[in-house]
Amino acid sequence: MAVFEGNFTQTESLRLAIVIGRFNDLITGKLLAGCQDGLKRHGVDVDPEGAQVDYVWVPGSFEVPVVARQLAMTDRYDAVICLGAVIRGQTPHFDYVAAEVAKGIAAAGFQTGVPVIFGILTADTMQQALERAGIKSNKGWDYAMNALEMANLMRQLKK
Ligand code: INI
């Protein structure tokens, strides 16, 4: 028998897609920068003109799942990373958006068999979101690592 675990070192042949919500782009832009930094420092060519990463911008987090599913269905990608920022306001809008995005991203991965990374930051305030998008740490880096680990793991499991 065996133990399977994804690594972060065999990255040169990976193909990734990153879907980014433009809503709260002060935050999502920083998440994207953290994500690219993590990928780059693990050997991934993050240049949009290069062969490894495609980028797709959508209006907001609510639109992320349908695009993530479409990308995953193409069979072109080892993982799809979803980046968004849902920040609680004065209305219940937050709850609707956050719940649907979480369900939709889970469904996109489950239906296609491609790892779809849940990089949607949910926060009560802009300050809280900023702290997780670069002021203290940058969750974008973690999402990059999650994608590399899952992409490598799935390749191992398919052999
Ligand atoms: N989209 C976000 O990504 N974050 C939010 O905090 C947010 N709020 O709170 O409204 C948000 N709304 C837009 C939504 O994602 C859709 O783009 C819009 O409803 C059109 O479908």
UniProtKB/TrEMBL annotation:
Binding site for 5-amino-6-(D-ribitylamino)uracil: 23, 61-63, 85-87, 118
GO biological process, one term: riboflavin biosynthetic process
Reactions performed catalytically: (2S)-2-hydroxy-3-oxobutyl phosphate + 5-amino-6-(D-ribitylamino)uracil = 6,7-dimethyl-8-(1-D-ribityl)lumazine + phosphate + 2 H2O + H(+)
InterPro entries recorded: LS (IPR034964), LS/RS (IPR002180), LS/RS_sf (IPR036467)
One Pfam family matching this protein: DMRL_synthase
UniProt keyword Transferase present: yes
Binding site for (2S)-2-hydroxy-3-oxobutyl phosphate: 90-91, 132
GO molecular function, one term: 6,7-dimethyl-8-ribityllumazine synthase activity
Keyword terms of this UniProt record: Riboflavin biosynthesis, Transferase
Root EC class: transferase
GO cellular component terms, semicolon-separated: cytosol; riboflavin synthase complex
Pathway: Cofactor biosynthesis; riboflavin biosynthesis; riboflavin from 2-hydroxy-3-oxobutyl phosphate and 5-amino-6-(D-ribitylamino)uracil: step 1/2
Domain of life: Bacteria
UniProt-annotated catalytic positions: 93
Entry EC number(s): 2.5.1.78
Described function: Catalyzes the formation of 6,7-dimethyl-8-ribityllumazine by condensation of 5-amino-6-(D-ribitylamino)uracil with 3,4-dihydroxy-2-butanone 4-phosphate. This is the penultimate step in the biosynthesis of riboflavin.
Family stated for the protein in its record: Belongs to the DMRL synthase family.
Protein's name according to its UniProt entry: 6,7-dimethyl-8-ribityllumazine synthase
Source organism (scientific name): Planktothricoides sp. SpSt-374
